[in-house]
Every structure is written in C-alpha cells, then in structure tokens.
Q: What sequence folds into this?
C-alpha cells in the first residue's frame, strides 16, 4: 500500500510538472531561474498607475469654470479620448521609471471585470522620442514562458523577469498587441505621458507606422525592479486628480509624485521607487471616478511590491460632492465621516507594516460652488490630519500652495485658472514641502 501511494504521488507530481512546463519553442531566456539571484530576491515598484473601472471623464465637481477677466487662461483638458474598442491593433505606452534596475517585471490588470482580454504579443524596450524605441533594447515579454497571455475578468497578471536594464528616471516603452476586438474598459485616462495606437502587430517596430497619439495607460498597472538593497522600497502617492497631475504639462513629468522621485534620486534616496496612484475625481468614502480609496486600497497599495510608505492626499472630492448644488443628498458626507475614512486607511496600512503620511487638503476658494460649509469641513479635516497624531508624518501641502494674502485660495502663480489643481510651479512647491529626511 505504501509503495502504491508513493507511486501515485510521484505520478501526480510528474503530471503537475508537465502541465507547468512551457510549450515547445517558447522563449525561456526571461525565466526567473535564469535571471534572478539571491541578492535580488525582493522587488519594488518603479512605476505604477491605478486602473479605474473604465475611462473616467473630468468629474462634475471639477468642471472647469470660465475664468474671470483677470484670471490666467484655463488650460485645455489633458485627457485625450481613446477608442472604445481595439481590434488587431498595437498600443505603445511610455512610462517613466522612478528607480532603476538590471531587469524589470510588468503587471497588467483587467480591473473592470468585463470580457477576457488577450494580449497576443508584449514587448518592452527603452523609449526614444516620438514613440520610437531603441532596437537593441527590445525584449519579448513572457508569462510563464509564453509570449501571449489572457487576463480573465478582475485578474492581475505579472510577467516573467525581463532582461532589460533600466536607469533611474528612464523612459520605457511597453507595446501590446490586441489580436481580437477588445473593449477598452480598463484605462487610466489621464496618462500625461504619450501613448500610441497603430494598426496590426507592431510591438517590435522601431518606428510605428501611422500611429494615433493618445495619453492613457491600457491595462498596464505596474513596472517593478529588483530591490538593490535592504533599505529599498516603494512609496505610494495615493490620491485624486491633484496627485494624478491634472493641471500639469503633459509629458513634462511635473506631477508632484514624479518630482519627488527626481528629488530622491538627486538627494541620494535612489533606492526608493515612487508610484502615482492618483485617480481624477476619486473619493475616500464613495464610488464615482473609480472605486473609493477605501475600496481600492488593497489593489493600489497593499498589492504593490515592496511598499514602505504611503503619502495620502484625499478628501476634496468628498467635500465638494457634499456641497455642489443639484448633487443628490445621498452623495454627501460629513467631516467626521471623512476623518473616520482616513483613520481606517491608517489602520490598514499599519496592519501591513506600512508607514503612512497624511497630506493636508488644498484650498479651493474661487470655485463657483465654494461655500462656508465646505470650508468648515476642510478646516476640520485638516485640523485632524495635523493634530491627531494618527499619521506617521504630516505633509502640509495646504501651507505650501495657499495664497499668503488669502489662505483660503491657491497662490495665484500656482493657479491654472480652475482654482483647484496646482500647475507645474504648484506641484514643485508640493514636492519641496515633503521633508527630505522623511524616508530615511
């Protein structure tokens, strides 16, 4: 009996090994065994983005008002519409690594839970201007040794290690081919960095033929690198449109999380990756533009590799959706509820050994629906952020960007005209407001 049982176990193990082995002819050069060493046992996130449940337009709370006669010109929306469906087309996305490494891994997510998504081919390479790639750096991306992959509804998939050396702050091109008609239901619309759509499978092309330019991330959710040292880690910037970089110059890398990444590199904190988990229109407590912060904390923070710190800037959308005329009363919340939501995010971060810094909510005087009630809510939440002692650190973004002559509004040189989203200069002030010793 014992011999037969052992035989059955051995046969079952053999069957499992056969099932997991890559198909004949599959690329195996990027396998974890071939590339990873004991010194590279852990991974940290170098770039990442949150994936809302489908394309998200600018939320009603921040519909840009007509500027006054003396106001600066209102910049155009940074969101470029994307096709509702892709069929036999290549998407090439450009992402900027915050920290470098000798190899990378990519993560994709079918967040919307719609139809399955098949990527027929995936390539990664160092990016060149105007959507070109460095041909010598082009690498085929595999998943379990296979060159194509299918994402089932709600699934996240992570690639094999890719033998592509990436320098800090380098641009990486990720090209995917959609062989079948596929709804674009998992898109980060406010990509800011360029992306390109072209006909057919052009994933390996040095120069795309007749590309359409957009600024979004399609299913791509992360790029990670091996942890170079014991103190390496990931910092997650977790927030709404202000963190997302809504009023910053597209392609200029002027959102405060990217400026923080560049600052860490310049000041010797080069082992820390910074990822932008901002979603325009996001709220702490309720769904709207994507899942609420409480709902998405698992996928956008806890599931990211190597997270050590969270920088949390949320709450202005909860306040504004509570005071905008015509919005259903069911969308409203109280300052006490916002504080309770923040407190829950702190507790959940601490459960996983992650430190969390709270950022104060920025002023919004000048909005058409600005009110004393909304200002009272903002003041109460900011007082709690500053004084409760619940956060591991406090970053006073409010103090960094408010107008000294009228602290209830943005400094005029930081206001692009919508009275909400700091411009490039305002984001620079926000990045500088983060204490340089915070992560040491």
A:
């Amino acid at each position: 009996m014992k011999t037969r049982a052992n035989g059955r176990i051995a046969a079952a193990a053999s069957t499992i090994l056969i099932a997991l082995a890559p198909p004949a002819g599959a690329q195996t050069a990027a396998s974890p065994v071939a590339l990873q060493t004991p010194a590279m046992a852990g991974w940290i996130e170098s770039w990442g983005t949150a994936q809302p449940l489908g394309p998200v337009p600018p939320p009603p709370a921040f519909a840009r008002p007509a500027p006054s006669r003396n106001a600066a010109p209102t910049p155009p929306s940074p969101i470029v519409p994307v096709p509702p469906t892709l069929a036999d087309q290549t998407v090439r996305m450009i992402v900027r690594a915050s920290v470098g490494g000798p190899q990378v891994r990519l993560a994709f997510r079918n967040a919307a839970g719609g139809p399955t998504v098949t990527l027929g081919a995936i390539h990664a390479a160092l990016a060149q201007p105007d959507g070109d790639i460095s041909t010598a750096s082009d690498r085929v991306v595999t998943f379990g040794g296979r060159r194509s992959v299918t994402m089932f509804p709600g699934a996240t998939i992570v690639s094999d290690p890719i033998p592509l050396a990436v320098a800090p702050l380098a641009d990486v091109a990720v090209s995917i081919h959609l062989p079948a008609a596929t709804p674009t239901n998992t898109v980060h619309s406010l990509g800011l960095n360029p992306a390109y759509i072209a006909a057919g499978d052009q994933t390996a092309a040095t120069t795309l033929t007749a590309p359409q330019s957009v600024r979004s991330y399609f299913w791509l959710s992360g790029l990670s690198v091996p942890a170079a040292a014991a103190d390496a880690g990931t910092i997650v910037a977790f927030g709404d449109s202000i963190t997302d970089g809504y009023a910053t110059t597209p392609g200029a890398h002027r959102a405060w999380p990217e400026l923080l990444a560049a600052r860490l590199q310049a000041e010797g904190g080069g082992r820390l990756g910074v990822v932008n988990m901002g979603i325009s229109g996001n709220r702490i407590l309720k769904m709207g533009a994507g899942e609420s912060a409480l709902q998405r904390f698992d996928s956008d923070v806890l599931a990211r590799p190597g997270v050590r710190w969270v920088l949390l800037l949320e709450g202005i959308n909860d306040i504004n959706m509570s005071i905008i005329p015509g919005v259903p009363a069911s969308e409203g919340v109280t300052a006490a509820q916002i504080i309770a939501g923040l407190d829950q995010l702190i507790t959940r971060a601490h459960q996983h050994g992650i430190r969390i810094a709270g950022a104060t909510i920025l002023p919004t005087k000048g909005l058409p629906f600005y009110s004393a009630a909304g200002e009272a809510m903002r003041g109460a939440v900011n007082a709690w952020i500053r004084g409760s002692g619940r956060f591991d650190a406090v970053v006073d973004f409010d103090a960094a960007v408010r107008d000294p002559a009228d602290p209830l509004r943005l400094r005029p040189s930081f206001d692009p005209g919508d009275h909400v989203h700091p411009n490039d200069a305002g984001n620079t002030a926000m990045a500088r407001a983060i204490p340089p010793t915070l992560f040491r």
